[in-house]
Design brief:
The protein is built from one helix and nine strands; from the N terminus they run αβββββββββ. The termini are far apart. The protein has one domain: Lipocalin (Beta Barrel), CATH 2.40.128.120. It is 12% helix and 50% strand.
């Protein structure tokens, strides 16, 4: 009985930690990131392109910088990404999760003592 429970728990954990699945496609694509520090600040956006591979790796670009490393993960009903870019002076660590069709995330630059929460929406397709 204990062995069966352990086997069931291991299978559930493996399912939560599985690499990118077709669900990860909902994070791939073009996003417009709202970088305003407050809702009443002047509009300030930057583009973000994400590609999530079958192995869970994340590539693309954000804030005119290529993603040097990144991962997709899903657990607890959430789909999330974490990735690294650079401004030439140091690395920026970014992470975000999909919430109601939007990406809710933050960017941290230790070398600049800087942390900024942000939100992103799908970039409308050009016609």
């Amino acid at each position: 009985m204990i062995f069966a429970l352990l086997l069931l728990a291991a299978a559930a954990q493996a399912a939560d930690e599985a690499p990118a699945t077709p669900a990860s496609a909902s994070l791939s694509g073009s996003w417009t990131v709202d970088l305003r520090p407050a809702d009443d600040s002047p509009v300030y956006t930057q583009p973000m392109e994400l590609t999530i591979a079958a192995d869970g790796s994340v590539t693309g670009a954000f804030y005119n910088s290529e993603i040097s490393a990144g991962r997709f993960g899903k657990a607890r009903g959430r789909q999330c990404v974490a990735f690294v870019t650079s401004d030439g002076q140091g690395d920026y660590q970014h992470s975000a999760c999909l919430v109601d069709g939007k990406m809710i995330g933050q960017s941290w630059a230790e070398h600049r003592e800087f942390l900024l929460p942000w939100a992103a929406s799908r970039t409308p397709e050009e016609k």
